[in-house]
Design a protein that fits this description.
The structure is a single chain. By secondary structure, the protein is of the alpha+beta class. The chain is elongated and about 65 Å long. It has one domain. This is Type II toxin-antitoxin system Phd/YefM family antitoxin. InterPro entries: RelB-like. Pfam families: RelB-like. It comes from Candidatus Brocadia sinica JPN1.
Length: 60
């Protein structure tokens, strides 16, 4: 990551400049974490049950 910082007159970091690709990856990570947080209370199913459902839906 080729990160650059903007500093104030005292040398304190006030902002960051990221390459666009790194920024987009961070946005994807944030989105993934949001989805995980939203689904954390959903009941878990076994791998076998997942396979059964995917086969029933014609996806496996």
């Amino acid at each position: 990551m080729d990160t650059q910082f903007i500093v104030d007159e005292s040398g304190n970091k006030t902002a960051v400049i990221l390459p666009l690709e790194d920024y987009e990856e961070l946005l994807e990570d944030i989105h993934d974490l949001t989805v995980i947080a939203e689904r954390k209370n959903e009941p878990a199913i076994s791998l076998e049950e997942l396979k059964k459902r995917l086969k029933a839906d014609g996806l496996l």
